[in-house]
Amino acid sequence: MKKYLSLLLVLTFIFGAVGFASAEKVEITYWQYFYQTKKDTINELIKEFEKDNPDITVKHETFPYENYNTKVASSVPAGVGPNVINLYYGWLPTYIDAGYLNPLPKDEFDPVNIEEEFFPLVQAAKIDGSYYALPTAVRSLALIWNKDRFREVGLDPERPPKTLDEMLEYAKILTETDKSGNITKPGMTVELRGQMHHWIREILIRQYNGTPYSSDNRTVTYGKQAGYDAFKFFTDLSIKHNVGKVGFLTDDVTAFKSGRVGMYIDGSFRIGTLNQLKNLEYGIAEIPAHNGVKSNFASFWANGITSQTKGKELEASIKFLKFLTSERAMELWLTNVGELPAKPEVALREENVDHPQYGPFIKGLEYAHATYFVDEVSQRQVWIDAYDMVRLQGTSVKEAVDTAAETEQKVLDKYYQDK
Q1: Please, are residues 135 and 342 in contact by the beta-carbon 8 Å criterion?
Q2: C-beta separation of 56 from 50 below 8 A
Q3: What CA–CA distance (Å, rounded) separates 199 from 164?
Q4: Which of 70, 71, 339, 416 is most buried (CB neighbours < 10 A)?
Q5: Are 230 and 204 in contact (CB under 8 A)?
Q6: 282, β-bridge pairs
Q7: Largest pairwise CA distance in the chain
């Protein structure tokens, strides 16, 4: 009997050791641009994932936003970059054409299931019938106002503007200038390098009864009266009404955080940052409507798997990507970062829709549009250049918009010429 037990112990040890050896650990690397609340939240999610998957280690690296794409371009082709990468959905065509990403395996990420579970705007990540990335969260825009500034000028701090006309009226009241007419406290921000180019393209143009692009996204359609009216409203804010100034305190976010700006438009991702400010009381409301028309811009950062990822690393990356798009990840992301869950089942829970901060952004998703960018940087630049033409060169709004439309159409034509 003792011999039998001894033999059993030996066999158990041998096969246990073999089993232990076969449970080989796999390390994968995850990249995103640096944003403190996002970095902290991913680190928290990685701990949970590694606890449930002890055979997988996730190495998390972040890089400055300004250098992010350059780092990707130099690393992924050389096979030394990440396995799972976080990227703006508007960069997908560029990343795909450069060979940085492979489509997500359809047996693991069924397009039919994706379109049943996620908000429709996520379909902007579907190219030629395949999804290349999926988000944890989505974004929309909202009006953010400084309640202290409202009180200072006699406005009701609990009543934000609901229409464009009201917003302009409020902005005039909120604006303060020195004796030379220089703005010292803007009524609102007008920074196109922030979210304002989205406000023009997907919100103002639609509120003036136009569309930015054709239904197949291949043709620019804002070079018409709606585009002229929308851009005139925007340029008049600074040129005619003097309620905002480009570059005031560097950028719109810094300006608002200073407490000197009355109103600005930003994304839900900003909640986490603003909540860290102890001396600023602010409110969030849906984007003001015009002539009864509501519109909004929606966007997202998505996670894809790089083309260099193979074998065991691919299997681990698929598991990690599934975890990043789980309800648990979305709930934590909403709490920590302020970005909205990418699945309606999570986002539209009563406690979220009625939330004073999340609610206006979530309601905005109901009528939001995700621009199908083919070159997000160039397509943003056309509006910055158009604004400079009017402000610095005295060009008419019509000519500036026509130039923007012509320039952007060339960008679209170049991308679609072989597709």
Answers
A1: yes
A2: yes
A3: 12
A4: 339
A5: yes
A6: 146
A7: 102
The mean pLDDT of 222-246, rounded to a whole number, is 97
Among 338, 379, 297, CA closest to 91:
379
Instruction: Please give the structure tokens belonging to residue 49.
Output: 């994932």
Distance CA(2)–CA(18), nearest Å, equals 24
CA proximity to 207, closest of 287, 298, 264: 287
H or E stretch including 58? strand 56-63
What's the half-sphere exposure (Cβ side, CA atoms, 13 Å) at 158?
1
Q: What is the pLDDT of residue 20?
A: 45
N-term to C-term CA, the chain: 76
Instruction: Give mean pLDDT, residues 402-416.
Output: 96
CA atoms of 45 and 74, how far apart (whole Å): 28
**Alpha-carbon span 33 to 98, nearest angstrom:** 19
pLDDT at 6: 55
pLDDT-based confidence at 19, cuts 50/70/90? very low
28: phi then psi, degrees, rounded to nearest 5: -120, 160
Strand partners for 56: 26
Beta-strand (E) ranges in 114-172? 126-127, 130-131, 134-135, 137-146
CA distance 150 to 169: 12
Question: Number of helices (H) and strands (E), helices first, in the chain?
Answer: 19, 15
Q: Dump pLDDT digits (tens) for 325-353.
A: 999 999 999 988 888 999 999 999 999 99
How many other β-carbons are positioned within 10 Å of the β-carbon of residue 195? 23
Alpha-carbon distance of 415 to 408, in angstroms, equals 11
Give kind and range of the element (H or E) at residue 164.
helix 164-174
Query: Measuring CA to CA, how many Å separate 151 from each of 54, 154, 265, 282?
Result: 55, 5, 20, 11
